[in-house]
Amino acid sequence: MVMLFVSPRPILAAQPTNDVCEGAEVIPSDALFPYWTAVTDISEATTINDPPPPSCQSFVARSIWYAFTPSTMAFYTISSCLDAPTATTVADTAMGIYTSAAGCNGPFTLLEDSESSNGCNDDSCGPGGFQASITTQLNADTTYYIVVWEYADSLPPPGPPLVQIYVNQTASPPNDLCAFAPTLELNTPRRGTTIGANNNYQLAGSSCFVGLGNVPSGVPGRDVVYTFTAPVAGSYNFRVENFDINNNLVVYVTRTCPTGASPSVVADCLGAANRSPVSSVEEVTCVALACDERVFIFVDENTLTPGSSFTIAVTPCVREAEPNNSPTNANRVACGIVGTISPKDDLDYYALGTFPAGSRAFVLVDGEAAKNSTRNFDLRITASTNTLEFDDEDNDLGFGTLSPNVAGTPLTSEPAYVRVSFSSAGGGAAAEPYHVYAVIQPPLSAATPEVAETAEDPDPINEASNNYYYGTLTGPAPSTDNDLFSLAVNAGDLIFVSLDGDPLRDNTPIDGKLELLGSNGEDLFVILQVNDPNEFSSTNSSAGSLNAFTPSAPGEGLVYRAVDDGTVYIRVSIGTASTNRVGAGDYLLSISTMNCVGANGPLNAPPAIAASTSVTTPIAEGRAARITGSITDPDAGDTHSVSIRWGDGVCTTLNLVAGETNFVAWHIFPPDAAANTLTTTSTIKLTLTDYAANRASASFAVVVTNAPPGFSNLLFVSSNITNGAATLTGGILEPGELDSLTLTVNWGDGSPLETVQLPAGSNFFSLPHTYSPGATNRSVQLTVADDDGGLGAATTIWRPERADFRGISHLPDGHIRLQLQGTPHASYRVLVSADLQTWNELPGSARRADENGLFEFEDTQSPLSAQKFYRAVWP
Question: Could you tell me the strand order of the sheet in which 360-366 lies?
Fold first, then answer.
């Protein structure tokens, strides 16, 4: 139901030259697609010499003909729909595609339904979903006859009787395979199509289809794929809408996407939705995802059909919490909250709050994603003991035709509640999911009066900052008045429009029609239309009862998430079936944007992250950073979560209890893998989420610096060494464990600098070196550089090993001969002590060890003391 283009302006024909086959308008075989036919006035068309009516609709009148001989075998979309877009104004069309071996002489054969071909369509698109469109595979060089009828008896069609055909050739969508899956952003819808897609993916088993009303499916239809990465840890809804109701949509979400020959079986399924064979919406609700967790979303079908266009969006999930079966334990309301009726007599209450007497409640329950046969939800707006308004089956296509909405319910000064249950008609049933959208506006007196029409400006555009209007559709009935209102929107804005058909609650209702319009700069086109035929109002009191069916009043409601930035328009008029007393009168219109925010403000206000949020910067890689912050929230009692995306692929989620306003978190920034980066800048993103999924965010940069390397435990090892050989060992301290290293050694003996390349992660080295004979004290200088330019340095000294005594002997002359072994060619001195406290060097004791490290010394001192202790030192 979303339009992208506007067809050429209508050129009215006096009589349809294509009333019969011989006058069929020819669609060029080499047309530049998309292609629009001429606009045809069918008011004088007949059904003379028509082929048999199509099998999908036999109650037809006033036909017109087209002929098309494609030059290429391909899928083609042939549409009479206003939202194709075309200039068609006939509200209800039917279409058939025929072949004939003898041309217009017949007989005509309806294109058979098969995996690739479909030759018949009745209700699938356009305002109310009653116009016809066919997407099917057509063969090259075959002439096809396309016949379009009006659904009607022999009476002229109501309104302008115009028909135009849109033809387009369809290629495979780019996201036919997971490898090309586009990314979905939160709260940002995207248009898509399965037309021309292949059956690349299927499901096995039934484990994916959990929840009420779900029917397992192997999904053999055409499929396309999207991907989504959760910005914060939480639950998410995956919703596909505006799908062809004849094609049995299936949606499923998985962690991974298979490869291999098609069709591949998809595993890791997190949830699937296949509740209704004739719904325009399927939704997988409340899938729990971790921060930065990536999933794949498949838009598929229960059977192989020609495919369909659609809109897909991912939104946060706020789910009702049981028990909430009375006003005393009512849930706090959240815009679009997800609910379930189970068991069948379940009651779900949601607290709206307390407002000044006369305030107006606008509430819609969207049950389109629930199972088709069991989406008959009831809605009551209540006080603690009274029903303020009741509604049932007042929605239109796209929001659950058996689901309810109320518009403009007058509130008392007591606390107000929304009550959702299942219709008691037929015994009720359990069903899910449904969504509740609610806005509270001020009393009627605060509404902006519509701009009066004048002869100079018969169709003025209303615009007011409060987006809350009181107007009149002037008589006589049925009114031909059309009131237009403009609204500036941003992509992703949730628009909730609600029309009260009896604002004075005086039993003078109108049956209104509500349309959401887009613009191409010159013309307006319909995006959504709701026109439920309810035309009844009752002011009967229900004091003392929460189960009453009165008071009641007619209302229209629609919810739409904007796909594009720009201006949309809301048009209010009388419903097409309205006459007499319901065909003219006053109305109250509520337009809300930004997730159920009306003139009264939001029912649950968004929180805020205080400006004190900060982080210590700069911070060295491998070191812990500390972030602190505080939050504020006007809604007392809200719980919150703070999601921190540190900018390096890591998320931290803090869950705050009600009343907790401060938080602190720590994070170690990992080493940087890229070379030549002395500093990197990471953007830290904080997202604060309250109970109702309202969010506030903050972001700021933190500089992460390179941590230079260093040394530890430098040691020369030279045991059992000859000819001056030594081995230097040591540890490397490198916080940037992903950095490669360059080690440079100056041995201090005049030998060339030695350079060694060490791979990332190195934390130890061992280097041999041979000193020249006679080398003594040598200062060794070392440097280590990482690939980001960080530099560490150290100095150590090459020292000979301790000299060990090999022998001590007393000579005949009273001298003492000492025999020692140390490091080859090293110089030693011998010290002597009588008490191990005071040591003196023996005169002439300096000795150089030979090539084997051996040397000896003779102590010639006399007289000999009672005891002597010796030791050799270096140098």
Answer: 337-341, 431-441, 360-366, 405-410
Residues contacting 478, CB < 8 A, separation 6+: 574, 578, 579, 580, 583, 584
CA dist list (Å): 188 to 305, 311, 802: 27, 10, 77
Which amino acid makes up residue 521? G
Rounded Cα gap, residues 308 and 242, in angstroms = 9
Q: Which of 678, 534, 555, 697 is nearest to 613 (CA)?
A: 697
793 CB-near residues (< 8 Å, 6+ apart)? 781, 782, 783, 784
Give the CB-side neighbour count of residue 587, counting CA atoms within 13 A.
34
Distance of CA 317 to the CA centre of its chain: 11
Alpha helices (H) along 194-237: none
CA distance 123 to 583: 26
Which ranges of the chain have pLDDT less than 50?
A: 1-13, 115, 154, 719-722
Q: Identity (one letter) of the amino acid at 740?
A: S
Q: How many residues does the chain have?
A: 875
442 vs 599: CA distance, rounded Å: 7
The structure tokens listed for 246 are 């004849």
Q: Alpha-carbon distance 176 to 174, whole Å?
A: 6
What gap in Å lies between CA 197 and CA 264, rounded to an integer? 15
Q: Each residue of 481-497: b (16+ CB within 10 Å) or e?
A: bebbbbbebeebbbbbb
Q: Report the alpha-carbon distance of residue 601 to residue 111 in Å, rounded.
A: 55
Predicted confidence at residue 195, as pLDDT, reads 86
- Which one, of 521, 514, 522, 478, lies nearest residue 497 by Cα? 514
What does DSSP assign to residue 156? P
Q: Are 291 and 653 in contact (CB under 8 A)?
A: yes
Residue at token pair 């899910």: 432
Q: Which amino acid is at 337?
A: I
Each residue of 22-39: pLDDT tens digit?
999 999 998 889 999 999
- Amino acid found at 128: G
pTM: 0.74
SS3 label, residue 24: coil
What is the token pair recorded at 26? 């020819």
Is residue 232 within a helix (H) or strand (E), and if so which, with residue range?
none
CA separation (Å) from 502 to 450, 582, 586?
16, 10, 7
DSSP state of 131: B
CA atoms within 13 A on the CB side of 421: 21
Of the candidates 58, 144, 133, which has an alpha carbon nearest to the alpha carbon of residue 95?
Answer: 133
Asked whether 690 and 607 are in contact (CB, 8 A), the reply is yes
Q: Report how far residue 542's alpha carbon sits from residue 850's, in angstroms, rounded to the nearest whole number.
A: 117
Written as six digits, the tokens of 610 are: 């205080």
Model confidence pLDDT, tens digit, residues 358-389: 999 999 999 999 987 777 899 999 999 999 99
**Which residue matches tokens 């080499």?**
30
pLDDT at 215: 94
Q: What is the DSSP string of 280-347?
A: S-EEEEEEEE-TT-EEEEEEEESS--S--EEEEEEEE--B--S---SGGGPEEP-TTEEEEE-STT--
Name the 3-class secondary structure at 271.
Answer: strand
326 Cβ neighbours under 8 A, 6+ residues apart? 347, 349
Q: Which residues contact 165 (CB under 8 A, 6 or more apart)?
A: 27, 36, 37, 66, 78, 79, 80, 86, 146, 148
Question: What secondary structure, in 3-state letters, does 517-566 show?
Answer: EEECCCCEEEEEEECCCCCCCECCCCCCCCCCCCCECCEEEEEEECCCCE
611 CB-near residues (< 8 Å, 6+ apart): none
For Cα atoms 345, 348, 354, give the angle at the middle one, nearest 5 degrees.
145
Give the separation between CA 629 and CA 631, rounded to whole angstroms: 7
| Structure letter (DSSP) for residue 171 | P
CB 723 within 8 A of CB 744: no
